[in-house]
Design goal:
Blueprint lengths: L4 H10 L21 H12 L12 E11 L2 E14 L3 E14 L2 H6 L3 E16 L2 E12 L2 E14 L4 E21 L9 E26 L2 E14 L7 E5 L6 E5 L5 E14 L5 E11 L4 E13 L3 E12 L27 E14 L9 E19 L4 H4 L6 E16 L1
Antiparallel strand pairs: 1-2, 1-18, 2-3, 3-4, 4-5, 5-6, 6-7, 7-8, 8-9, 9-12, 10-11, 12-13, 13-14, 14-15, 15-16, 16-17, 17-18
Helix pairs in contact: 1-2
């Protein structure tokens, strides 16, 4: 693991509409910072990603603490990763990842009560090197009170043209089981529910498939370019069992809540290009662009710049600046004019139009552990990312009694992502 790997993975996933860092499904009207499918993909990137073609990962152990705080949501927990080679051609990876989630977000306060829950995720991965070809596959299991997710992934990478080019093909498949939590016995004060159970009348499923192609090319002794293309298909229950739309109605706050209705399928395409330039003083400049489009009419553009600087022999500092913008889904509206206005209706803020800005800083310090000869390298790593999101058509409905339905201020979210971990190579 390297500084910023968690944040970089989260940022990359946040660029995929429908699976944002800022909100998704879980809980009793509840929305943790990461959706179950998103967190599964995130851990896949962190703990079980394939090796670079032609090179097996070093034997390594990582212990990490991560946290996300923003928009009334707090997600924090540990992660443990172990990689171990067996011979010269086989490598195994095991990862445990835990989220402790508490939420009093705008969605929770609008239609439910604050909550706490824990999600536990386990994954294993295998890399097999044969000549200049690397075969990778793995399995991920994620469990939380109202969501179960199983994911498998496969990839093959090939070095060619004198090892100047690496081509990678990948495939992933996920099966989700979605439940809805209800309060079985509320507390006498009515402030929280100590007994939450799965609704016996609600059980849905969703399938996800993903196909990817990547090519990495060394252009000059100082320049490297990566090209990637992804196709993802989702089928089944893709809505949120807790979130609700709102439509105009007389009296009260001026609106009434109703269940969302989503299409049962979605296909998305994403293409990205990344350019790295290595400077004479060992620093690295990185520039990246990513384009996203799906059948729900969501279009997203991501621009990112990064700078990495090794100093004083043992320190590495890096900083990133990222901008992401997206349009809203074709069936999204903050406030529908009436009930049953159209066939599909959504008010998930990850399907709204918004702009996000992320700035991040990281530091890594390499050190030796005395009298432990079997550990040949170790490092301590810290990273902080600050993310700001400005919504263009998602309003703060909690202020409807002051401004009137449809006239509330646009919602704005600030979040801080922090990670600290220690890595040892043996």
């Amino acid at each position: 693991m390297r500084p910023g790997r968690l944040a970089a993975a989260a940022d990359a996933i946040d660029g995929v509409p429908g699976v944002p860092v800022t909100g998704a499904t879980s809980g009793s009207g509840r929305r943790p910072a990461l959706s179950p499918f998103t967190r599964t993909l995130l851990a896949l990137l962190i703990g079980a990603g394939p090796a670079l073609s032609g090179v097996l990962p070093e034997d390594e152990a990582d212990v990490m603490y991560h946290s996300y705080s923003g928009g009334g949501i707090t997600v924090e927990g540990p992660s443990v990763l172990i990689r171990k080679k067996v011979g010269d051609s086989l490598s195994f990876t095991a990862n445990y990842y835990e989220d402790m989630i508490s939420s009093a977000s705008i969605d929770v306060r609008l239609s439910a009560s604050p909550y706490h829950e824990i999600r536990r995720q386990k994954s294993i991965g295998v890399d097999y090197l044969h000549g200049k070809t690397t075969y990778s596959f793995g399995y991920i299991n994620s469990v939380e009170p109202d969501y179960r997710a199983d994911t498998t992934y496969y990839s093959v990478s090939q070095d060619m043209f004198g090892d100047l080019t690496t081509v990678t093909l990948g495939y992933k498949r996920a099966w989700d089981r979605i439940y809805r939590d209800i309060c079985n016995a509320p507390h006498p004060t009515g402030t929280y529910c100590p007994d939450i159970i799965n609704d016996p009348t609600f059980h849905q499923q969703a399938d996800h498939r993903g196909y990817s192609f990547g090519a990495s090319q060394i252009l000059t002794r100082n320049t490297l370019i990566d090209l990637n293309y992804e196709i993802d298909t989702d089928e089944g229950y893709l809505a949120n069992p807790y979130r609700e739309i709102r439509y105009l109605s007389p009296g009260g706050l001026g609106f009434t809540l109703a269940p969302q209705v989503y299409p049962n399928t979605r296909t998305s395409n994403a293409a990205s290009v990344l350019l790295k330039y290595y400077l004479p003083w060992r620093a690295v400049l990185t520039a990246q662009y990513r384009y996203y489009h799906d059948t729900w009419a969501v279009v997203g553009d991501t621009f990112e710049l990064g700078y990495t600087l090794p100093v004083w022999h043992r320190w590495v500092f890096d900083t990133t600046l990222r901008y992401y913008t997206q349009s809203h889904a074709s069936f999204y509206s903050d406030l529908f004019p009436r009930a049953d206005y159209q066939n599909y209706e959504a008010r998930d803020r990850e399907l709204a139009a918004f702009d996000s800005y992320t700035v991040g800083f990281g530091a890594s310090y390499e050190f030796e552990i005395p009298k432990v000869p079997w550990i040949h390298k170790s490092s301590a790593n810290l990273r902080v990312d600050r993310m700001l999101i400005d919504y263009s058509d998602f309003r703060n409905a909690l202020l409807a009694d002051i401004y009137g339905a449809g006239n509330e201020p646009l919602y704005h979210l600030d979040a801080t992502i922090f990670e600290a971990f220690i890595s040892v190579w043996f």
